[in-house]
Structure formats: C-alpha cells, structure tokens
Amino acid sequence: MSDPVPFRPFVAGTQPPLDHAAYGSTHLRHPKRALRRLPQTVSETTGPHFAPALFPAIGDLTKQAAGAPLGERIIVGGRVTDEDGRPVPNTMIEVWQANAAGRYAHPRDTHDAPADPNFPGEGRVFTDADGHYRFVSIKPGAYPWRNHHNAWRPVHIHFSLFGSGFAQRLITQMYFPGDPLLALDPIYHGVADAGARDRLVSRFDLDLTEPEWALGYRFDIVLRGRGATPFEDGGHH
Amino acid sequence: MPVATASQTIGPYWHLIEHAEMADLTRFGPGEEMGERITVTGRITDGAGAPVSDAAVEIWQASPPPDDRFPGYGRCATDGEGRFRFVTLRPEPVPGLGNQTQAPHLSIVLLARGLMTALRTRLYFAGEALNETDPLLASIEDPAERATLVAQPAGPGTWTLDIRLQGEGETVFLEV
Ligand SMILES: [Fe+2]
User: Fold this and answer.
1) A121: which chain B residues are within 8 Å (Cβ-Cβ)?
2) B5 lies in a domain?
3) Over the stretch A134-165, which tens digit does the pLDDT of each residue have?
4) CB-CB: which of A94, A166, A193 is closest to B60?
5) B87 lies in a domain?
6) The domain that contains B24 carries what CATH number?
7) Per the database record, which ranges form the Intradiol ring-cleavage dioxygenases domain (chain A) (predicted)?
C-alpha cells in the first residue's frame, strides 16, 4: 500500500505561535517543550465524516428564535480552497459570534451589554461542490476583554473548518474591514506575517450585498495543500 | 499561490457551537460488528496545575472507518475540573508509513482560550502489544514522556489519560 500524500508544512510566519507574550492566556497554556514532528499517516490525512442529514445546516442566524435579532443584517460568503487553489467541497463550517451589542449568548460572558434572546449566535453550513459557502447573520459588536488595560476585541466571527484530513482542521476568526481595533489586538497581531493577517479581514462585497436587505462581506478561506509545492516539484525555481 | 489561512484562538465562548451529544461518537447507532464501545476520560491542567475548564477536546480516529453512523469525530467541553469524557468505538491498528503498523490510537486536538493554534496529541491504550513497535511511541526515548500518550484502564471498557499543557509531566504534543 502506498503512503498517503501528506499536507505541506505551513509557510513561515503565517500561523501564530503558541507562546505569545502579549496574549496573557497563553502564558500557562503553551507547552515548554518543542512540538514533536509526526510524519503524517492515515490518522492525519483523512478526516471526519459528517452526514449533512445528521448535522443540519443553520444558514440563517437571524431566524433561530421567535423574533428577529437586533443589529445590522449581513450576508457572509466566500470560497474554501486549498493552497493549490482547488475547492474544498462539501465540508462543514461552524460559525459563532456575539450579538450586535458585543455580548455572547453564553453564561460566562459578563460584559455589561444587553443580551438578545433572538440571537443564539450559532451557525453551520456546508460548502457546495465548488467550495462556496454563505450564511446570513447580524454584524457582531466589539467587546472588552481583560487581557490588558482598556482591551477590546475587534469585531469578529469565529469559524471552524474540517477540510478533508484532520491535519487541515482550522479554527480562525473573520474580521471586518476598517476596524480601528485591529491595530491594537494581540490575537490578530499574533500572526507575524502582515499579508496573512490581512487575509483574516473580510472584504465588503457589493455583489454579495442584497438591495434593500443586507450588506455582504466576502471571506475566502484557504486550507493546507497536499504534497510537494510546485517549487519543489519543478526544481527550477 | 494561496497560503493557508491563519489560525486564531477558539476563545472562551466556543460553547455556542457545543452540543453535548457530540462527545458520544456512537450516538447514531453504529452496528455491533463495528467495534467495542469504550469510554475515554481525562483531565486537562495548565502550567500552574489549574484545571483548564473552557477547552474543547476533540478526538478523531481513522478506525473503525467512519460512515454515516460513525463520524469518527467527537468533541467534548471540559467541565469546571478540566475533565472530559467520550464514548466511542475502540480503534483497530491502522497502517503507518511503508510497511509499518500503528498501534490503536485516537488523534486529539485541544482548542481553548490561550491556544493560538490547535494543540495536537494522541491517545494510545495501555497493554496493547503493538505499542512496543508503534512508530511514534517507539521514537520517544524517555519512558515518562511516552507515558503521557498512553491511557490507563479505569474500569470495564473505560480508559483515562490526563493532559498537562505545560511544566512537570507535560504531555507530548505533536506537529503534523
Ligand atoms: Fe469572540
């Protein structure tokens, strides 16, 4: 039996470190020993099987309660591809976010901002055959956290993706363009590479925007590619 | 060439996507022939020995092969004591690279506030003869480090493995 094709290593600087002094919660939670390199086997190159019938989609976060949540309605969409530009089809995406006032429907969120009983804040969609996804929500609010004096998280939506192999598992956050809090956020700045940071920021998209109804934001997501890079393949670079 | 999207922490409020039943990988009723039902428990502590009470613990197993009735994947929220508990099917050995065989194991991903990227490790089962020749376990020279990957029996069909994020007894974490 031939070995499975492994996913490529990440490009240096494009992923955050586990030890990040500016983010206080990393201090006691990062391993002190170097990670041990594990050659990828079937346990890393294959991944979970989610039957869509058993993991029903929640594609409209504004319709999960009796009434409509307060806030600015938005449409978020984009495409999931790998580093070779190939679409990642039929993969599950989970999203969650604060309400328009910057508060999560979570018992441990003590931020003094109004709860919204009409906004549980959970979504789940699958990409189509071409890697595209889309969901409807409201624009979340910024919220304070206690990392340092006067610390506020930029407006964000949390994303969870699985891809086709467990080594592609990705948890990330989508930000909004023009947010002044991005410049001050240690979690966002945990990513050293400016281009990689910038790709976490969604783009306002007039084509995704629906007239008289909701603004559209585009957020494309790239999962690790498989096999050698073309550079390594060709040997001429 | 596109570059993989950066990881960001799952944060303290990921429970908005938590569904307690996801910790039971047998909930869709896999056939008896697929394998023995087991319970896997453990506790996660940080560098100060304090429980990690807001983590998402995920397991993935390529064996038995996932299908509509067995997703091969489960997720569990740690409780106030840092504990987690899964019900799943006992994995069989799976191929390694070349002619190697890997001992039965679960892949583990830890996600939490303070983890900028997923932390990865594995869980093996004590007493399994193949552990002696498993490529990963055999590559770890220090028996104490190796032991951080091996769950111990804790009653009928139950296995337990504590995970230490940092410091004395620190779990072996993996880069894949
Ligand atoms: Fe958040």
Assistant:
1) 16
2) no
3) 999 999 999 999 999 999 999 999 999 999 99
4) A166
5) yes
6) 2.60.130.10
7) 76-104
Scan for tokens 């990227």, then name that residue.
Answer: B117
Name the nearest CA neighbour of B6 among A230, A192, A203. Answer: A192
Report the alpha-carbon distance of residue A123 to residue A134 in Å, rounded.
Answer: 11
Computed from CA positions of residues B131, B133, B138, B143, in that sequence, does the dihedral angle turn out positive or negative? positive
State which residues form the domain around B57. Answer: 11-164
Total-model pTM: 0.97
| Interchain proximity A121–B16, CB inside 8 Å | yes
Closest CA to A36 of B126, B125, B149: B149
**Nearest by Cα to A45 from A234, A171, A221, A223:** A223
Whole-number Å distance between alpha carbons of B53 and B81: 6
DSSP per-residue string spanning A7-61: BPPPPTTSS--S--TTSGGGTTTS-SSPPEE----HHHHS-----TTTS--B-BG
CA of A23 to the centre of ligand 1 (A): 14
- ipTM value, please give it: 0.97
For chain B, the domain total comes to 1
Give the pair of three-digit tokens for residue B94.
């799976």
Residue type, position A17, single letter: P
Q: How wide is the angle at C-alpha A157 spanned by C-alphas A159 and B120, nearest 5°?
A: 35
Is residue B121 domain-resident?
A: yes
Indicate the residue of B11, B58, B115 with minimum beta-carbon distance to A29.
B115
